[in-house]
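Standup notes
- HV: blocked on the assembly model, inputs below
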Amino acid sequence: DVKVTQSSRYLVKRTGEKVFLECVQDMDHENMFWYRQDPGLGLRLIYFSYDVKMKEKGDIPEGYSVSREKKERFSLILESASTNQTSMYLCASSLYWRLAYNEQFFGPGTRLTVL
Amino acid sequence: KNEVEQSPQNLTAQEGEFITINCSYSVGISALHWLQQHPGGGIVSLFMLSSGKKKHGRLIATINIQEKHSSLHITASHPRDSAVYICAVLTSGTYKYIFGTGTRLKVLA
């Protein structure tokens, strides 16, 4: 079974703080993704990575950065947290890029509140 | 208009009822994914399909590629089925995931 874990289930931070969200997968997947989920909007892609040290912007990258130094680990960084970044953050991984049947596996999510 | 539309947005059913959740999409796809999200956040994969029908226990998923439509059925619904059900498509060519906004299901005992 693929296991995707996230460093925290719940996180409360103050405006202006630097925030790190970590994601680890244990199945040697090439691809990793960070999404945020907001009511009525569904999941939106922030960034993804298809290899170590590689990253691509998703649909809403503004205010975020990412780091992938090791294949199993993908970090999402909020350089200066703002209240509009209060959201549920979900990490996912999948086997290979450009695979027609490329199922994504999700972590448990981190509910971030920025005060 | 969203590229992936789900209906209904909210659904309340009595225990034992047969439930149908619909997903329509407007892009070319290589596969469609049904996901389940319980309160608390974690998303679990239910089915991934590119044609026909799949069944797992009381859950059945169908897809009609020509009509760009998929349905998720739950037979003999139970309160533990209460969750948000999300449809996602894996686009052909770009291999990008596009998500629907989800259907919130509540099954009453």
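- HV (later): unblocked. The radius of gyration of chain B is 13 Å. Chain B is about 0% helix and 60% strand.
- Next: hand off to the docking folks.
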